[in-house]
Automatic annotation (TrEMBL):
One of its GO terms (molecular function) is manganese ion transmembrane transporter activity. It comes from the Eukaryota. It is a multi-pass membrane protein. It comes from Arcella intermedia. Belongs to the CCC1 family. GO terms for cellular component: endomembrane system. The keyword Membrane applies. Keywords: Membrane, Transmembrane, Transmembrane helix. It is found in: Endomembrane system. Its main location: membrane. This is UBA domain-containing protein. Signal peptide: none annotated.
Length: 269
């Protein structure tokens, strides 16, 4: 139980990377699947484009997370050095800052004075408190670990729309055509109806996963039950909207391309 609690607390440190990576991963790939389906492109195109996008975007986002986390760490180091100089040169200023911190946390004046007297004697603890209290500063974490969480979360959640598509992908249907005499040929074509149903199943499962990801976000941030449900609906709304836009644009562009080639009405299938 202690190991589980320790792991969960450490995991919460990187909740931003997990949620951002997972959300961006599943929504990005879901939009790719929706776009390919809207354009009625072959399943091979979907898989190639989906997998390539999955790993390229995962790498890009993890590098961005690393650079952002490194910048935060550098900012924190500057803050620590500044507070360290204040601690070494101006004891009265340190006492004043600690008093303000504790008073803002709701402690009485007597309690704040007691805590200040105890903590002010510990240099590192005093600096830690002042750094955490500074605007836009957060608890320290390792940039490389944060980037790895982002990459793994992006790949894991982003693979869900593709994985279900692979599992439910219908087999190609052979079509036999005959010519004069006994000659015949076999042409393998995709079952478009089966592909459409695969997309529908995948959409439902992906939306459920988005809802679960929103619930996970709420649980890890210790939100209320009502907030957990709201987080889930937010994830579903954003993911659904992105997929709808991708599907609609791909459908219209594919129809326009067909119209340009045949001269038919572009919106009549």
């Amino acid at each position: 139980m202690d190991y589980y609690s320790s792991f969960l607390n450490g995991f919460r440190t990187y909740i931003r990377s997990v949620v951002y990576g997972g959300t961006d991963g599943i929504i990005t790939i879901f939009a790719v699947v929706a776009g390919v389906s809207g354009a009625a492109l072959p399943s091979g195109v979907l898989l190639i484009l989906g997998v390539a996008t999955l790993f390229a975007d995962a790498l890009s986002m993890s590098v961005s997370d690393y650079l952002s986390s490194t910048a935060d760490a550098e900012k924190e180091l500057v803050e620590r050095n500044a507070f360290g100089r204040d601690y070494d040169s101006d004891t009265h200023l340190i006492h004043t800052d600690l008093m303000r911190i504790f008073r803002n946390k709701g402690f009485s004046k007597a309690e704040a004075e007691t805590l200040t007297q105890i903590i002010a004697g510990n240099r590192e603890l005093s600096i830690d408190l002042m750094v955490l209290d500074a605007e836009n500063c957060s608890p320290p974490h390792r940039p490389l670990v944060s980037a790895l969480y982002t990459f793994m979360s992006f790949v894991f959640f982003g693979f869900i729309p593709l994985a279900l598509y692979i599992l439910l992908l219908p087999s190609p249907a052979p079509t036999i055509t005959t010519t004069s005499g006994s000659d015949f040929s076999v042409k393998v074509t995709e079952n478009r109806v089966g592909l459409e149903w695969t997309f529908y199943y995948g959409t439902g499962f992906t939306l459920m996963t988005l809802f679960a990801l929103g619930i996970l976000k709420g649980r890890l941030t210790k939100s209320t039950v009502k907030s957990n449900w709201w987080n889930g609906f937010q994830m579903v709304s954003v993911g659904g909207a992105a997929a709808f836009v991708a599907y609609l644009i791909a459908y219209v562009l594919a129809a326009l391309e067909g119209w340009a080639k045949s001269g038919a009405d572009p919106l009549v299938v």
